[in-house]
Design brief:
By secondary structure, the protein is an alpha/beta fold. It has 14 helices and 22 strands. It has 2 domains: 169 residues, FAD/NAD(P)-binding domain (3-Layer(bba) Sandwich); 182 residues, Polyamine Oxidase, Chain A, domain 2, CATH 3.90.660. The radius of gyration is 22 Å and the shape is globular.
Length: 439
């Protein structure tokens, strides 16, 4: 492989962005990826007969998302999911009426307003500040915790939750987010099936070791998840500073399991394309959520998050499918078994994936400063950590990972004596645009 100027560990969104930016600045780059594919926690499969994202699915905050113009420049179709969203909510043995849904909408606005106006008390969790006692409060808390963040609200820092609230449109690449990253990785010097097991960074150069042998470079960017950092899968020599280790500890991985169920025939359960399904919950209840027939495709997408996801992940894919059909029977009766196939299902396994150990990061109560601390340059700039966990406002998104990786590459270039500049390839200046307030 030779010894490059810059070594990048991981070929997910942050690693691909770092490699593209570094090469545009004239650096010789080598990317080492543990998996046999690129994309990290964005992975598009064809298991259901058409593209299905097992991981990252949306380009959130589209008005400030750097992947949007990159996708458009390559002719990839982006679909505004927000324009077609519709939803059905199961409550007390029936589908919520128009009046009940209006009540739900009003409760949601009031609930979010209360959380945004809650005192900025250090260490306060999302659950601590959330309204309680209302008919929809438990459902809303479940949405903002397990469904969106993959974590239980008692374990989430309120200040970080507020800082990472997303604004703007949510776009779906028709061919999948994993496919988009594959396209953007084309031509990059990436070595697959090359896990780094040891990274030495105490000298004037960094040295990565693994089954591939050893590679030395002037600087390194490590883009693995905080779950992988905490696992010790990479032995850092010297060990990472205590402040960095504490930051990684304060940003554990949440889990969202995504799965797809094929249609067994023509019955579409009276649900439209992109129809959403959920249940009203009582305190302490856990449930899955659903999106029906995206793009008119013959599969139903399901999601399980937080503690439910970790339990199902530990029990295996069969347990996930058992739980899914049990919930669907509650809403549709035996019709669910006739309309959907259990065989051929696609199920994500990020909780068991040794190179992920979860879906994306969240901050523990009191850990609101951890994202900035995790991205502090180390060893005089020879070592940087990057990824979605390092972004202070777009955490848990592809955009956050991309911005973090590109910024780390520019900083590495400066360390190596190259002057960052705006490039035609990315258009970055290093500043994250303020998100639009559009829907």
């Amino acid at each position: 492989m030779g010894d490059p100027d810059l070594l990048i560990v991981g070929a997910g969104a942050a690693g691909i962005a770092a490699a593209r930016e570094a090469r545009s600045l004239g650096l010789d780059v080598r990317v080492l990826e543990a998996r046999g594919r690129v994309g990290g926690r964005a992975h598009t499969v064809q298991d259901l007969g058409s593209p299905f994202d097992l991981g990252a699915t949306w380009l959130h905050a589209a008005q400030s998302n750097p992947l949007v113009p990159l996708a458009e420049a390559r002719g990839l179709e982006l679909f505004n999911h927000d324009l077609v969203r519709s939803g059905r909510t199961w409550t007390d043995g029936h589908w919520a009426t128009a009046e009940e849904l209006a009540e739900y909408d009003a409760a949601e606005h009031a609930w979010h307003e209360a959380l945004m106006l809650a005192p900025d008390t250090p260490g306060l969790s999302l659950a601590d500040a959330a309204p309680r006692g209302g008919r929809w409060d438990a459902t809303l808390l479940h949405w903002e915790g397990p469904v969106i963040c993959g974590a239980e609200p008692e374990a989430m820092d309120l200040a970080d939750w507020r800082a990472t609230m997303l604004n703007g449109s949510n776009l779906l690449p028709r061919e999948g987010c994993g496919h988009l990253l594959e396209v953007l990785a084309e031509g990059l010097p990436i070595t697959l099936d090359a896990p780094v097991t040891r990274l030495s960074w105490g000298g004037r150069r960094v040295r990565a070791e693994g089954p591939f042998g050893a590679v030395e470079a002037g600087a390194a960017i490590v883009t693995v998840s905080t779950g992988v950092l905490a696992s010790g899968a990479i032995a850092f020599d010297p060990p990472l500073p205590v402040a960095t280790q504490e930051a990684a500890h304060d940003l554990p991985m949440g889990l969202l399991i995504k799965f797809g169920l094929r249609a067994a025939g023509e019955d579409r359960l009276d649900l439209p394309a992109f129809g959403g399904l959920e249940r009203r919950l009582e305190p302490g209840e856990r449930a899955m959520t659903w999106i029906s027939w995206p793009f008119g495709r013959a599969y139903l997408s399901g999601f399980a998050g937080g503690a439910l996801a970790w339990d199902l992940s530990a029990a295996g894919d069969a347990a996930t499918l058992d739980h899914a059909f049990s919930e669907l029977r509650d809403m549709f009766g035996a019709r669910a078994d006739r309309a959907l196939r259990r065989d051929g299902a696609a199920v994500a396994s990020w909780g068991r994936d040794p190179w992920a150990r979860g879906a994306y990061s969240y901050a523990r109560p009191g850990g609101s400063a951890a994202r900035a601390a995790l991205s502090v340059p180390l060893g005089g700039g020879r070592l940087r950590l990057a990824g979605e966990a390092c972004h202070t406002s777009l955490a848990a998104t592809l955009a956050g990972a991309w911005y973090s990786g590109a910024a780390a590459a520019r900083e590495a270039a400066a360390t190596l004596g190259r002057s960052p500049r705006v490039t035609e390839r990315t258009g970055y200046t290093g500043r994250v645009p303020a998100p639009s307030s559009g829907g």
